[in-house]
Amino acid sequence: MKKVITIVISCSLALAASVIAQQDEQQQKPRKEKQPAKSQPASEAKPAPKLQQSVPRQHAETKAPEREKAPQSNESTSRQHAETKGSGYEKGQTDESTSKPHVTKPHVTKAPEKERGNANVGREQTEQRKKERGATNESETANKPPGPAGEREQSSAATAPQANKPNAQANKLNAQKRPDAQAVQRIKTQHASFRAQPKPDKVPPVTFNQGRRISGSQQWQGPQYQVFRSYNPEWHDRNWYHSHFNRVELIGGGYYYWNNGYWFPAWGYDPSAQYYAYDAPIYVGSRAEPPDRVIANVQATLQEMGYYQGEVDGLLGPLTRQALTAYQADHGLYATAVIDEPTLSALGMS
What we know:
The protein is mainly α. The protein contains eleven helices and four strands, in the order H-H-H-H-H-H-H-H-E-E-E-E-H-H-H. It has two domains: 2-87, no CATH class; 155-346, no CATH class.
């Protein structure tokens, strides 16, 4: 009876040892397969030491699977290593040799710190080069002398009126840029007996427009521009003009009356002689020179200065008004497009 019990107990212990060995083998096999294939081949594996004869037979059978573990582990590891090199092993796949899949975190590729440092240094160098080029361009622009066009733009910007307001500094500088006094005197001598002739084919006449106001005159400030701000064409007969003004003369195909330094068109004085190139007051000064003579002097002076390209005809036509506007703008005066007191004074003819 005791022998039977001993045999049963031995068999039970052997079965338990075998089950425990199999569990240990399953747990240790994945760990060994993850190791690099550096283990010795099966042919070079050291032989297992001989078991002592005192070990029971059942214990030898339990150790047998462990001796078979090394070749099997080497074979599976080699196969797994080959698959990893060939097709790119993904860590998220399930291992065939294990019963449970081995789940890992997704692999995120990061640039080496050395490469990131080089990229930052390169970006800083690029920005530094841009700043240096910008500073070089600014210095070249600042040191570059302005050409003729640039000088003309600077001169126009410095002398042109802002919001129809004369530039006081330009007027001060203009005193040194007046036409030569001898040239002005020569021009006046040449036109001492000048008489304008009507040229309706070249200079079309204007028509009477009652209630007309000179455009922009309300912005011209100062007493010397009051006459332009208040001018309003009127139609009267011959008797009315003689009763109000001392001088009424036929000049360049139309009648003008003189009043306080200005010549005005005498609309209605003689309906058969009403040729006026421009309907506005013309300043001539206290000597009451004929307006056509003053216009001819201004035309000749502007012609020598390069502003007027037309004929000296004594008529205040479009070309003459355009030249007056350019001269007035360049010399800080209101662009009246007519001969006014400040313009005649700037030309040295007042």
